[in-house]
């Protein structure tokens, strides 16, 4: 037997945890182990850092008064925030410990106020309603959980009802200017602590009331593109929920209204960027991670995304630092790279990093996403605390510790780059890449092995630079060249090949004893049409290369 595969199979999460976890932590790790997820690497530093993240994750769970474990933001952040813990963090965690994600989602519905407002934070079982802090679209996270975890109708009905009432609250109280955009009354509405975006605007709403804006503010309320995009995206997914539940509701029309308002009021076609509009109807001309937030909400077509890549996200003058993505464009004089505190004034934030895959993969930009993941994995491999922010210059970790977005970023990026990822749409991705030694030539992993159990089938993936191998219940299922992603359904039926490198990959896929020749370009998807037809082109957006000016 391959020695790396043998070591992968010998990993025992609970035994190796030892005394690291309390009772809640042991319950958490027990469910994690049921996912079958394991990771092993020969050589390099990544494997130890990976398990350091796994064993720190129990520090980010709390048992509520009802006995359920819920996810916490971690570090100095004592509680669960809607913009992160209660949406994108829980969405990533649901691939590993779904019961904790479900309880995390449901508590926001349980604590919803009578007028429809959902708390922006829940701390020690107590809801806090001071601001909205709505960035990641909650409806998408709920829908993806529903698809991936048994399609529990009762769960969907409960969460749909809560999000429907929340949408009504936002329409009533955060559209004071009648534009159809969602308004930010303060900096904390968007979670943009210390960002120059909100210089001379209060951190919190007027008198701590989320329905009130400071009447004497020279600038607020803002028409906020990230908040508007979040509502647009949630309305799209509320439409899917309503259809699934047999309800007649005009969510598609309402989503389209949000999208029109976003482009009418917050988009500047002259530079292809999204900006706030202040109370005087002026653009707040600061290029920030608002762009990535908007794009992660599925705003815009493939042409707009490609343009945003070359002009901004993959531009080394803008957001594509050595350790991307910065929270302020680097060519702005207000850019501050320091990461010793909670800041969105320039440093690379892990919340941005875990939101990014939605934006890239929505437009089939898998290759470009790897260019962001690779340096971040190099930084993660050196981490000991797993802080909130990184230095965009050096990759050194900054403020706080045991921060759940950083810990989940490690798990998510390893799985996307060289692991086995079950997607909400029923696809399973087996990605044949390796972490690359970008920093001083320090090896992260010379070979990798990854395991995951899906619907009772124990899958394993072995990656090397020469060849990759998939096993199902110990039986060899496939062999294929490095540099591609094999796509199956959850039962292990072949669906497609995706090119994962800039260079085209030519080779042969050995699948269940059958051999198929193929050539796939970067980001190209070849669909499998059966033994006779083999692979045929389905899509090919090309690859956008990084820019300098």
From TrEMBL:
Domain of life (superkingdom): Bacteria
GO BP: any one term: carbohydrate metabolic process
Domain annotation Mannosylglycerate hydrolase MGH1-like glycoside hydrolase: ranges: 102-352
Stored InterPro entries: 6-hairpin_glycosidase_sf (IPR008928), 6hp_glycosidase-like_sf (IPR012341), MGH1-like_GH (IPR054491)
Cited Gene3D superfamilies: 1.50.10.10
Protein name, per record: Mannosylglycerate hydrolase MGH1-like glycoside hydrolase domain-containing protein
């Amino acid at each position: 037997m391959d020695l790396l595969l043998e070591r992968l199979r010998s990993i025992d999460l609970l035994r190796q945890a030892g005394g690291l976890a309390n009772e809640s932590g042991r319950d958490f790790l027990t469910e994690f182990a049921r996912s079958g997820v394991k990771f092993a690497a020969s050589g390099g530093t990544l494997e130890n850092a990976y398990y350091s993240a796994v064993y720190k994750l129990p520090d980010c769970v709390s048992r509520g008064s009802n006995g359920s474990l819920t996810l916490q933001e971690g570090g100095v952040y004592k509680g669960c925030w809607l913009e992160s813990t209660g949406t994108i963090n829980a969405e990533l965690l649901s691939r590993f410990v779904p019961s904790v994600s479900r309880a995390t989602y449901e508590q926001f519905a349980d604590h919803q106020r009578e007028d429809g407002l959902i708390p922006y934070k829940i701390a020690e079982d107590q809801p806090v309603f001071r601001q909205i802090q709505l960035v990641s679209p909650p409806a998408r996270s709920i829908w993806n959980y529903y698809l991936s975890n048994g399609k529990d109708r009762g769960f969907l009905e409960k969460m749909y009802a809560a999000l429907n009432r929340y949408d009504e609250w936002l329409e009533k109280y955060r559209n004071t200017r009648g534009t159809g955009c969602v308004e930010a009354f303060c900096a904390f509405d968007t979670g943009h602590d210390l960002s120059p975006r909100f210089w001379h605007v209060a951190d919190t709403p007027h008198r701590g009331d989320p329905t009130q804006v400071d009447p004497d503010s020279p600038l607020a309320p803002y028409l906020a593109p990230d908040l508007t995009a979040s509502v647009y995206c949630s309305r799209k997914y509320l439409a899917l929920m309503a259809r699934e539940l047999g309800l007649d509701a005009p969510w598609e029309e309402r989503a389209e209204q949000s999208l029109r308002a976003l482009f009418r009021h917050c988009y500047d076609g002259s530079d292809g960027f999204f900006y706030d509009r202040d109370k005087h109807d002026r653009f707040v001309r600061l290029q920030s991670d608002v762009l990535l937030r908007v794009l992660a909400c599925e705003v815009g077509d493939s042409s707009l995304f490609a343009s945003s890549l070359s002009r901004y996200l993959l531009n080394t003058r803008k957001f594509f630092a050595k350790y991307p993505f910065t929270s302020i464009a680097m060519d702005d004089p207000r850019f501050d790279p320091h990461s010793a505190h909670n800041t969105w004034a320039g440093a690379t934030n892990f919340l941005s990093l875990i939101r990014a895959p939605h934006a890239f993969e929505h437009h089939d930009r898998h290759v470009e996403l790897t260019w962001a993941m690779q340096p971040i994995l190099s930084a993660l491999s050196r981490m000991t605390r797993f802080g909130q922010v990184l230095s965009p210059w050096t990759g050194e970790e900054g403020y706080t510790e045991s921060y759940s977005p950083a810990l989940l970023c490690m798990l998510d990026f390893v799985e996307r780059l060289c692991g086995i990822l079950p997607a909400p749409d029923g696809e399973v991705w087996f990605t044949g890449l390796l972490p690359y030694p970008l920093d001083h030539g320090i090896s992260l992993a010379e070979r990798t092995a990854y395991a995951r159990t899906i619907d009772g089938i124990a899958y394993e993936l072995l990656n090397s630079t020469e060849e990759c191998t998939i096993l199902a219940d110990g039986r060899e299922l496939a062999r294929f060249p490095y540099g591609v992603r094999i796509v199956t359904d959850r039962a292990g039926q072949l669906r497609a090949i995706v090119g994962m490198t800039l260079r085209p990959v030519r080779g042969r896929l050995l699948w269940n004893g059958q051999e198929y020749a193929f050539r796939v370009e970067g980001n190209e998807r070849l669909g499998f049409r059966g033994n006779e037809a083999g692979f045929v082109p389905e899509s090919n957006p090309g690859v956008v290369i990084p820019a300098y000016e």
